Structure formats: C-alpha cells, structure tokens
Amino acid sequence: MVKLHVRDLMTTQVITLKGTDTIKQATVLFALHDISAAPVVDDDRHLIGILSETDILELVMKHQKELSIDHPSLYMLASPMDDIPEDESVKKASDTISNTLVKEIMTKTVLTTTPDAQIVDVIEEMIKKTVNRVPVLEKGVLVGIISRGDIIFSIYKKKR
Q1: Positive or negative CA dihedral for 53, 38, 47, 40?
Q2: What does the alpha-carbon distance between residue 94 and residue 75 come to, in Å, rounded to a whole number?
Q3: What values do phi and psi take at 159, rounded to 5?
Q4: What is the per-residue pLDDT for 119?
Q5: Which of 50, 55, 85, 109 could form an SS bridge with 90, CB 3.0 to 4.6 Å?
Q6: Measured distance CA(133)–CA(76) in Å, rounded
Q7: Are 10 and 150 in contact (CB under 8 A)?
Q8: What is the pTM of this model?
Q9: pLDDT tens digit string along 36-76?
Q10: How far is CA 22 from the centre of its chain?
Q11: Count of Cβ atoms closer than 10 Å to residue 157 Cβ
C-alpha cells in the first residue's frame, strides 16, 4: 500500500497575508480567492500566524456587543461596511474593524506540518484539534498548505 505524504496533496500556490494588512484587505482577499483563511507570513515567508473567517467574525461580534449595549437596535451587519453608515457609532465600529491589522487578531499558535509528513498523521491532528487547514513548512519557510478539502478531494480522485 502506498503511503501518502503531505507533498502529494498540498496546495503550493498559497494565498498569504502580512501582519500589517488590514482586516478589510484580508476580507477582500478571502472573497476574491474564495478562501476562508490564509497564513500570515513575514517578508521571508516565515509563518507568524493564520487568519480565518472565525477570527474576523469574532472581531465583528465584539464590536456588535459593544454597540448593542449603547444602542440595542443597531446592527453592524445591517449594511455593507463599504457603505457610509448614518449612525456615528456604527461608522466608528466599522472603521475600527476595517482598519484593524491582521497581526492584532490572527491566531499565533498554529498547527504546522512538513511536506514529508504522512497524510494520516496530519488528518489525526486536524480532527483532534478541529483545524481545517495546516500550513506546510520546510526549514521554517511556508511552501504549501493542506486543507480538509484537499484531502477529501483526493479520496475520489482517480488513483494512478
């Protein structure tokens, strides 16, 4: 039986973010590339964290809760953040969210793997830690990413 390794299934064209990118920039990047998270790297492609939709939604909900205390009828998501909200409190919260830097809310402790790791080992860790994607590092440099989708797709992909 052939043992699959991470390198056999990983995506090598990884969409990344910088810690100095804003949440607005990250959100646009997610939408344009139809992704739900991205590794955050420095200028040398060393991993410094990962930003997911969950991180962004937690930030939005934090501001929504603060807004609801003063104005129970106001909702952050009632209109797109690109619109200029009529209410000054909503505008301020929207601007704060949009201008928050990725490094301020990203997850800093990230499960990683190497290209030579066995897929079954990575799957076990992903399930155990409820992680959807794992950055792949070689000598500390980001070289790919392996997602649950990559693995699921390979189950029915025509085998050689």
Answers
A1: negative
A2: 11
A3: -85, 150
A4: 95
A5: 85
A6: 29
A7: yes
A8: 0.86
A9: 999 999 999 999 999 999 999 999 989 888 776 666 555 66
A10: 13
A11: 9
Which tokens go with 63? 């501001």
Q: Are 73 and 56 in contact (CB under 8 A)?
A: no
**Nearest partner of 37 among 154, 137, 145, judged by Cα:** 145
- Structural domains in the chain, CATH included, are 6-156 (3.10.580.10)
22: alpha, beta or left? (left if phi > 0; alpha if psi -120 to 50):
beta
Q: Is 32 helix (H, G, I), strand (E, B) or coil?
A: helix
Whole-number Å distance between alpha carbons of 53 and 58: 9
| Residue type present at position 48 | I
User: Which DSSP string corresponds to 37-103?
Assistant: EEEEE-TT-BEEEEEEHHHHHHHHHHHHHHHHHH-TT--GGGS-TTS--SSHHHHHHHHHHHH-BHH
- HSE of 35, CA atoms in CB hemisphere, 13 A: 25
Say how far apart CA 18 and CA 64 lie, in whole Å: 26
Contact in structure between 137 and 16 (CB atoms under 8 Å): no
Q: Look up residue 122 and give its two tokens.
A: 């990575």
Structure tokens that stand for 106 in this block: 């990203």
Q: Which two tokens stand for residue 5?
A: 């390794």
